[in-house]
Amino acid sequence: MSTASPTGTPAPGQLTFVAPRRAKPARHLADLTMAERRAAVVELGEKPFRADQLSKHYFDKLNGDPATMTDLPAAAREKLGTALFPTLLTPVRELTSDGGTTRKTLWRLFDGALVESVLMRYTDRTTMCVSSQAGCGMNCPFCATGQAGLTRNMSTAEIVEQVVAGARALAAGEVPGGPGRVSNVVFMGMGEPLANYKAVIGAVRRLVEPSPSGLGISARGVTVSTVGLVPAIGKLADEGLPVTLALSLHAPDDELRDTLVPINTRWKVSEVLAAAWDYAAKTKRRVSIEYALIKDINDQEWRADLLGKLVRNKLVHVNLIPLNPTPGSKWTASRPEDERAFVRRLEYHGIPVTVRDTRGREIDGACGQLAAAE
Ligand code: SAH
């Protein structure tokens, strides 16, 4: 892909914070607040209430095709459609597993950049896992996305559109289990959400704002996952958005974390945990500590003990993820007995712990497997 190839494969440990400068995706209704939508409509010579109509179509009825918005005069449809509903995401390929209840979509963006999103339907909820950047600059060696480097930041609307697409498929009854809705959104697809802060916050607002301003998803159902950009965690805590924070820790000691999560060379375990506890105190939300269990690398009982001591008596939950295989990686998931021992040590310290299911593994749609190749 010549139009949007990443900056190149990063050297081990190399971090990329600033996305390469590229043409921006066109403005879309979902980029704008309600007030901005009204202003945009007025600027196009229409009455402000047209913005409310467009918003109802998009966020209530999940309709992004102005040609079908028959409550608007034909001329306005044409004009407003062109100005506020550009095509941002084009589906390239869809893979399903778990009897159709897990569904990974590869999207092409306007400039050829590729990203993926994953829909996961469970009995009691449906989760959309979305990408926030094309590629990622954080270079974690066990994550497929990190290996290809950062192509560019996504816009607010490009992020929201992934959720709307999932919501549409659910509403249309395309996902086994009957018509449904998106109850949860996790920023655990491609990219480091806090490295694309402004667009991600915009997207979170669009997701949680009640209709017709947004999709009306409960903030409690939204999870922002980060490698641990400490200043941005502090900023997020002050947004007044009670979303769940997930912190990708993966090691309780700096020596190992420096190699597994290179950002640790900038902000140490103690600093990132302090930021997480501040987040919990401000938002009253339980922080989720993500820990991929890698055989003979980070799965020793002494590391479980160290982790236990670091997080006990905090508003926390530890989510263990059996490492998912990625191309070219020498690492693999922990032995079952080591995983069990790790869980037991954490439970001994009184820490709520779960082992994440590895949905979508067969379609390379599980954590860390999103590489967006055609
Ligand atoms: N950049 C963000 C969000 C994307 S990754 C972050 O790192 O938190 C979502 C989760 O999947 C993170 O916890 C990440 O560390 C984890 N992950 C990455 N590669 C993985 C792999 N191969 N197996 C299991 N989990 C992985």
Automatic annotation (TrEMBL):
Enzyme Commission number(s) of this protein: 2.1.1.192
Stretches assigned to the Radical SAM core domain: 122-361
Keyword tRNA processing: yes
Record GO biological process: rRNA base methylation; tRNA methylation
UniProt: S-adenosyl-L-methionine binding residues: 191-192, 225, 248-250, 324
Cofactors named for this entry: [4Fe-4S] cluster
Free-text comment on the cofactor: Binds 1 [4Fe-4S] cluster. The cluster is coordinated with 3 cysteines and an exchangeable S-adenosyl-L-methionine.
SUPFAM superfamilies, sorted: Radical SAM enzymes
Residues engaged in binding [4Fe-4S] cluster: 136, 140, 143
GO terms of molecular function: 4 iron, 4 sulfur cluster binding; metal ion binding; rRNA (adenine(2503)-C2-)-methyltransferase activity; rRNA binding; tRNA (adenine(37)-C2)-methyltransferase activity; tRNA binding
UniProt record similarity statement: Belongs to the radical SAM superfamily. RlmN family.
Biological role: Specifically methylates position 2 of adenine 2503 in 23S rRNA and position 2 of adenine 37 in tRNAs.
Protein name: Probable dual-specificity RNA methyltransferase RlmN
Taxon lineage: Bacteria, Bacillati, Actinomycetota, Actinomycetes, Streptosporangiales
